[in-house]
Design brief:
By secondary structure, this protein is an alpha+beta fold. Helix content is 52%, strand content 17%. The strands form five sheets. The chain has a seven-stranded mixed beta sheet, with helices on both faces. It has a six-stranded antiparallel beta sheet with strand order 12-17-16-15-14-13. It is elongated and about 115 Å long.
């Protein structure tokens, strides 16, 4: 139990880490720990960070070990190796000494709870049950109940630590300092003191402390802590790199673009810390239930002890008090109030480990119930990067068509133009571009090496009365048509690439009997083509944001649970309307992090299925624990009230069931998704 070895924390500022705040929130989530105990979770974590882990665990278990040795010795003296001196006050004192290491902290917690107005806490139940056992001379059983309860608490705490481990790994990804280039020197500075525009020198194996722009020609980074992907990510000069990435090759230089507190990783950490405060419906119900349930069983125990005097001929107060005490031990609700939040916390941790941020246990429940997944096309199912798919030259060489078109597109900022320039590579060298005129909604006109060129849509050709191949009009992709000296010379087919795992994602969703729908602003032909290739159930194109809202509203009228997957910026109204909003590309969009309920960090559509799968598994484990706790407790409660169960069965019904439920809850951390 954390409260058995509370340590004085002298430097509050150094101890107030993000990980401790997360621990405090986990303690609040259990619903049965006082504020002091929450602090002790933090102290333990702090202690664990600065000392040998095995020593820390040994100190945690030391009071229980001492109590167990004293108890076993007393049982041996009572039953196997009788001692003439082990009688009377010596025997009672021995059992009291065995009780103190594990019982005193619980007595203190019970007193604190009563002082704060929470009389019927689990600490109170344990105290009256064990002190009552002492009162009727059942010293060994009184010590045993408190001992096993304390051991159960220790295992609960270790389970919480384990459940936090993947989140803690994320919290540890942000270095406190970085090497900054100042003139001809490189100096180490606190990350919080580094300003925008400063240049960080990142050696091989070092973690980046702040978001920035890569100044080196190329650099390869390990992004596993941020995206859950072990595959290295190579960045080129000018590309964004994020705090927490690890440099894998030569020394790299990064220009800082965001201060320490504004980095994407900092925002993610805030998300994780806030996640456990959003309770699931099941979790909230159990907490409310425990508050009503505990006083009821206390009064029932009083009834079991006193009411039989009215009905039983040979009423023996001691026997009925013993039954009432057994009833109290069995009725302790800690198996529920600990294991259920732990199950949800484990689900959030498992998702984080897989590069998915879920903003609270309530969304795990919603994910488990999803019936329809509605997706945006660009950036969700496709890469959102336009690429030249085909070049058709008419009456001119393909190389010349590419050269002239790419040359004029260097004067454009349109993504389509960028795709042609990238496709052309260095072919545009030594060309002269003059008199460029952009014709809004149509394309561009200009001179390349003295030749007049028109580049744009078919509307541009019609505007200048240039005839072209009319078959172009039925191609369901973006078409860039080119005319040279008023003569049609060919076209480019430009399309957005479908993500490699998009088909697998849709197949996985269909296996769960989840319907899939595309809502997109692109033209219907393109949207239908993507839907056909991926086997998506329905596809709607040419939609404005308000049209998407209307479509979602129509689905909600059918009482369906809906997840919407988009970029979290343009689709904000739809994300707000859906039962759960999922943002792709969360690391590239602050708005996605702020508006969505779930953020997929690596843009992979398969993670939609993973998030739903984790939600279903978490809910399954939670309900398994509820069923286990209620069924075992009910059976032993009936046996205890009828005099068929002893304190030892009561200990199993309480601590044993709690441990089984905890082991089941942490199982989600070992699952592969």
């Amino acid at each position: 139990m954390a409260h058995q070895h509370k340590q004085e924390v002298n430097d509050k500022e150094s101890c107030c880490t993000s990980e401790q705040k997360t621990a405090n929130k986990m303690s609040e989530a259990t619903g049965c720990c006082s504020h002091d105990e929450s602090e002790n979770y933090s102290d333990d974590d702090h202690d664990h960070d600065h000392s040998n882990g095995n020593d820390s665990i040994y100190r945690m278990f030391l009071p229980s070990i001492l109590s167990l040795l004293l108890l076993l010795t007393a049982i041996a003296f009572d039953n196997y190796f009788p001692q003439t001196w082990f009688v009377g006050w010596v025997r009672i004192t021995w059992f009291c000494v065995a009780y103190i290491p594990v019982g005193l902290p619980v007595l203190k917690e019970a007193f604190e709870s009563i002082r704060k107005g929470a009389v019927f806490s689990e600490f109170f139940l344990m105290c009256i049950a064990t002190l009552g056992a002492f009162g009727i001379g059942q010293y060994a059983e009184g010590v045993a109940v408190m001992l096993f309860y304390s051991i159960g608490e220790l295992f609960q705490m270790l389970a919480v630590k384990r459940a936090k481990s993947s989140i803690k790994a994320l919290l540890d990804q942000r270095p406190d300092s970085a090497n900054v280039i100042e003139g001809l020197e490189t100096i180490s500075k606190k990350a919080s003191d580094i300003t925008i525009g400063e240049i960080i020198q990142l050696k091989q194996g070092e973690k980046l402390a702040l978001d920035g722009k890569l100044l080196s020609k190329h650099a390869t980074f390990n992004t596993a802590a941020l995206t859950g992907e072990s595959k290295p990510d190579t960045k080129s000069k000018g590309e964004m790199v994020l705090a927490g990435m690890i440099n894998l090759n030569a020394v790299a230089q990064v220009e800082v673009t965001a201060i320490f507190t504004d980095s994407k990783l900092s925002k993610i950490l805030e998300l994780v810390q806030e996640a456990t405060t959003k309770k699931a419906t099941t979790e909230l119900f159990i907490r409310k239930f425990a508050k009503i349930y505990t006083p009821i069983v206390v009064f029932l125990a009083i009834g079991i002890c006193l009411l039989p005097i009215l009905f039983v001929e040979n009423y023996v107060f001691k026997d009925w008090l013993y039954r009432a005490l057994i009833f109290l031990v069995i009725s302790c609700p800690c198996a529920l109030v600990i294991s259920i939040p732990l199950g949800y916390f484990g689900g959030i941790g498992a998702a984080s480990k897989n590069g998915i941020l879920i903003k609270g246990s309530t969304f795990l429940d919603i994910l488990a119930a999803i019936q329809v997944v509605v997706m945006d096309k660009t950036g969700t199912l496709t890469k959102g990067v336009f690429k030249v798919q085909k070049v058709v030259a008419v009456g001119i060489s393909e190389a010349d068509l590419i050269k002239y078109t790419a040359a004029i597109e260097t004067k454009s900022t349109h993504p389509v133009g960028s795709a042609i320039i990238e496709y052309a590579k260095d072919i545009v060298k030594d060309t002269t571009v003059t008199e460029v005129n952009e014709i809004a909604g149509h394309g561009m006109k200009g001179l390349v090496d003295g030749k007049e060129i028109l580049v744009g849509s078919t509307k541009l050709m019609k505007k200048f009365n240039i005839s072209y191949d009319t078959e172009i009009d039925i191609i369901p992709f973006t078409i860039i048509v080119v005319a040279l000296n008023q003569k049609y010379v060919g076209y480019f087919i430009i399309a957005d690439e479908i993500k490699e795992d998009a088909k697998e994602a849709i197949q996985s969703l269909h296996k769960l009997n989840i319907k899939t729908i595309i809502l997109s602003g692109d033209n219907q032909a393109i949207v239908s083509l993507v839907a056909k290739e991926l086997n998506i159930d329905q596809a709607f194109g040419v939609l404005l944001p308000e049209n998407k809202v209307q479509k979602i509203s129509e689905l909600k009228e059918q009482h369906l649970k809906i997840a919407f997957v988009g970029d979290g910026v343009n689709d904000a109204p739809v994300i707000a309307l859906a039962d759960v909003g999922i943002a792709m590309g969360g690391l590239g969009s602050d708005a996605a992090i702020e508006t969505a309920d779930v953020v997929i960090q690596n843009d992979q559509p398969t993670k939609i299925f993973t998030a739903i799968h984790i939600g279903k598994k978490t809910k399954q484990i939670v309900w398994q624990n509820i069923g286990l706790a209620f069924s075992v407790k009910l059976i032993v409660l009936i046996m205890g009230a009828g005099g068929l169960a002893t304190m030892w069965e009561a200990v199993f019904a309480d601590v044993g069931v709690a441990l089984l439920a905890i082991l089941n809850a942490v199982r989600i951390q070992r699952m592969k998704f």
